[in-house]
Design brief:
The chain has three helices and seven strands. By secondary structure, it is an alpha+beta fold. It has one domain: Pnp Oxidase, Chain A (Roll), CATH 2.30.110.10. Strand 4 and strand 5 form a beta hairpin.
């Protein structure tokens, strides 16, 4: 589907993603995070601190929603988040400017990577709307 290719291109060009977790009271909390890598619209990765509230949220409930947009086009994803603290993954995802947030570099004990895996997608691209399930991506 051409709309999927356009959505993947939109994600590739997006440096920020809004990501929602579910807090302990059952409410969604939306944050803007810097994308480190993406695999089509099936998966993407962002960095965050292990001490953040969203880590507690995702440990208790891995369900999440993400959104990115540009020039009137938007993609909303529903899926699950996993938390990675493995050195190899953290090294692969590292950007030099992260040092501002993680002064200990890749070895900083607060630095981790979140991996979002899409289960559903709602795409609005060039005035076309489509809902897709994981197997259609």
């Amino acid at each position: 589907m051409q709309i999927i290719t356009k959505a993947e291109d939109l994600l590739t060009k997006s440096s920020e993603i809004t990501l929602a977790s579910i807090n302990e009271k059952g409410y969604p909390i939306v944050r803007v995070l810097s994308k480190t890598k993406s695999d089509g619209i099936r998966k993407f990765w962002v960095s965050t601190g292990l001490s953040s509230a969203k880590i507690k949220h995702f440990k208790a409930n891995p369900k999440a929603s993400a959104c990115f947009f540009n020039e009137g086009n938007g993609v909303t994803l529903v899926g699950k988040v996993s938390i990675h603290n493995d050195y190899a993954i953290k090294a692969e995802m590292w950007f030099d400017w992260f040092i501002e947030h993680y002064p200990g570099g890749i070895d900083d004990p607060n630095y981790c990577i979140l991996e979002f895996e899409t289960e559903e997608a709602a795409l609005w691209i060039d005035q076309e709307f489509v809902n897709l399930q994981r197997k259609q991506l």
